[in-house]
Design brief:
Helix content: 25-40%
Number of helices: 6
Shape: globular
Number of strands: 10
Oligomer: single chain
Radius of gyration: 16 Å
Distance between the termini: 20 Å
Strand content: 15-25%
């Protein structure tokens, strides 16, 4: 939900570096356009942009199981509720926005508990399962940062922090010390 070109491109770079044949990002929910241009390796691709989660075709709704919410803190509650209500196979996601009102966070907490899903954030740079999944800006927003952080192969160390800056520093320290990362998550502030 929302568009942050650097974050979306970094997820696509991770997918490409992993050897995937197509990006894991299936759609962007934003207003004002029908598609956005990104690169998948050296190939330029268009990702579809939908004005709302309700406008996504039913087959694609079934396919989506994770989300990244990139909208402002005031819009996180309504946009995340819409995702939870309209995506039947949703298991979780991340909320990037800072300054999420406390009452909105509490309402989302209750809703996710009822639905049996998880959310990292607000103020989360995301999560990464090395060699498998990147959800957010975690690990860097440039392909060279992902490679330098040794995020393309399974490792043995897990990192969890409430600070996005700290989680990224620990990821880099881990890689620089010759260790591999298994999992990292910024739970948010």
């Amino acid at each position: 939900v929302g568009s942050h070109k650097g974050i979306i491109q970094s997820v696509m770079d991770f997918d490409y570096l992993q050897g995937r044949k197509q990006p894991s990002i299936k759609a962007i929910i934003a207003s004002g356009r029908n598609s956005e241009r990104f690169f998948f390796g050296k190939k330029e691709v268009l990702l579809p942009v939908h004005s709302s989660v309700e406008s996504i075709n039913p087959e694609l709704k079934e396919e989506i199981n994770l989300f990244i919410n990139l909208v402002s803190g005031r819009r996180v509650l309504s946009s995340t509720k819409s995702l939870i209500e309209n995506l039947p196979n949703l298991v979780g996601g991340t909320v990037f926005a800072e300054r999420l009102p406390e009452r909105h966070a509490l309402e989302l907490d209750q809703l996710t508990e009822q639905k049996g899903i998880w959310i990292a954030g607000g103020a989360s740079v995301g999560l990464i399962i090395a060699g498998h999944l990147k959800l957010g800006a975690i690990g860097g927003t440039q392909a060279k940062q992902l490679e330098a952080s040794n995020l393309l192969a399974d490792g043995q160390i897990a990192v969890v922090s409430s600070s996005g800056v700290m989680v990224n520093k620990i990821i880099r320290l881990t890689a620089g010390s010759g260790f591999g990362l298994s999992f990292a998550m910024a739970v948010g502030g």
